[in-house]
Amino acid sequence: MWYLIVFFISMVPIVEIRGAVPVAVANDLNLFWTYVICILGNMLPVPIIYLFARKVLVWGSDKKFIGRFFSFCLEKGEKGGRKLEAKAGNGMFVALMLFVGIPLPGTGAWTGTLAASILDMKFKQSVIAVMFGVLIAGVIMGLISFGAFVKNLGAQAGPSQVLDCSSCCGAASLALDHADGRRPPRQGHPEITEDACADSGLCDAP
Hints:
Layout (H helix, E strand, L loop, with lengths): L1 H8 L6 H11 L4 H13 L2 H15 L6 H20 L5 H10 L7 H10 L4 H35 L7 H16 L13 H7 L6
Helix pairs in contact: 1-2, 1-3, 2-3, 2-8, 3-8, 4-5, 4-7, 4-8, 5-6, 5-7, 6-7, 6-8, 7-8
């Protein structure tokens, strides 16, 4: 069920793979299958965006109820196109790949594909560049999300794993008494002191 949810999250504009991967990591999904599913979900709309999004946005930009939203989307694509042109010193392919691959606000497969369409980049070149960008974004978000999850898990589990030294010393003393065939020590006269316990490495003295 969660794999299906993650698949649909990766298709959502702006959220895309950068939002889907943290959800998958938080729900302890398999990282390999999460990666594959998120890439498929993020790439599925790309050909449709390239072929039809620009035309639809231009058509709807002057309509009464949808005009403001469509104009916003068209403006976002044009802004992305200008960013791509500014980075095109290494070529439009690399610029588009990095634009999609670096998970920053205003970037991603949707914006990158729309920008490529507005700039009249070739269809095949655009799709391949966006695909490589999505692969990079998936790796980056996977590392960030997994690292944050492990750090948070360690912070929560750490204090509960520390044993009280007095109880540890008592347990060690009883164990040694039984091993030597002696009676347990009287209460208040432990045979193993806290310093000895700490030196032995049996527990962490407070």
